[in-house]
Amino acid sequence: MSANSLFSIPLRLRRNRRTEAIRNIVQETRLSPSDLTAPFFIIEGSKKRIPIQSMPGVEWISIDCLLQEASYLHERGVQSICLFPVINPKLKSNSADEAWNSNGLLPQAIRCLKREIPTLCVIADVALDPFTIHGHDGLVDSDGKILNDETIECLIRMSLMQAEAGVDFVSPSDMMDGRVQQIRNSLDREGWINTGILSYSAKYASSLYSPFREALNVNLQFGDKKTYQMDPANSREALLEAKLDEEEGADILMVKPATFYLDVISKLRGLTQRPIAAYHVSGEYAMVMAAGQMGYLDPDKVFYEALLSIKRAGADLIFTYAIKNVLDRM
Ligand code: PBG
């Protein structure tokens, strides 16, 4: 017998791969625009679109252009975007007060988006790094230690301000212990019962964030983020982080980065009934773009495969800078 056989029935798996139509009907995982969330780096001013060197194809964008870009994506079926403000260095401080300024760049963007494109889901990051001089996600004491509970007070102020501006999900990316519960309680106490929490539950201390830090003009002035972000060697701990966030009231749990951590996404999928988000981060984007620029591979095809693998592992929502690279393939 020439093919594989099971109980002497010839098993020809290639029959289901024979034509495009057959391949389509047996396809197990499909990507659609509503699976994807587009991150944006917002700057002050108007009519500004400035290419970001560390992330070819991604731009710094002023609020007016953000509206155009977001409506284009929304018309194409994308349901959500997430926002990162690029903060003027003059507004940065050790106390990060700009993070909860209700007239700041971020709440302005949220209000414009909610006014002009009310059906689009808007997610905003909650962490102090764009607003601190030292670039850490939290407040720092005189010895350079990141202060957990004091930082949570700031995250609460930031979340309440974003809720008031109209955000659909606040998205704590700071990895302080206990922040989800405290943010949930404060939102509820102030009447924001419908504002969701998309928590960066298992966020690793990864080397893949450097293009993002350049895009956000965040320079870590000392140390690293290993006392709050997770060790890339650990997966049981990631499941515990996610379980705690779920118990504390997170509506969506995130794993970040994505492609190096597919095992974590997959294990979490088996444990939680909550939606899972995964962040295909700046380094995952930049590596593929760089190889594409060298002519070593086709970036659009590689992005499609990467995003498909993230969904196959179990993610419901994927944050990615590569949306425009894959939209035409869906
Ligand atoms: C900030 C934050 C980071 C990212 C998302 N939110 C950077 C960091 O933790 O240093 C990274 C996203 C990316 O690399 O695309 N807390």
Q: Helices, strands, pairings?
A:
Blueprint: E1 4-6, E2 9-11, H1 20-25, E3 36-43, E4 49-51, E5 59-62, H2 63-75, E6 80-85, H3 105-116, E7 121-126, E8 139-140, E9 146-147, H4 148-165, E10 169-172, H5 179-189, E11 196-203, H6 210-215, H7 236-248, E12 252-256, H8 262-271, E13 276-280, H9 282-293, H10 299-313, E14 317-320, H11 323-326
Parallel strand pairs: 3-5, 3-6, 3-14, 6-7, 7-10, 10-11, 11-12, 12-13, 13-14
Antiparallel strand pairs: 1-2, 4-5, 8-9
Helix pairs in contact: 2-3, 4-5, 8-10
Largest sheet: 8 strands, parallel, barrel
Q: Given the C-alpha coordinates, what overall shape results?
A: globular
Task: List low-confidence stretches.
Answer: none
Return the CATH class: Alpha Beta
Task: Tell me what the structure shows.
This protein has 330 residues and is an alpha/beta fold. It has one domain (30-329): Aldolase class I (TIM Barrel, Alpha-Beta Barrel), CATH 3.20.20.70. It is 36% helix and 19% strand. The protein has eleven helices and 14 strands. Helix 5 (179-189) links the parallel strand 10 and strand 11. Helix 2 packs across helix 3 (105-116) and helix 8 packs parallel to helix 10. The mean pLDDT is 96. The structure holds ligand PBG. Residues 125, 127, 129, 137, 173-174, 209, 212-213, 225, 281-282 line the site of ligand PBG.
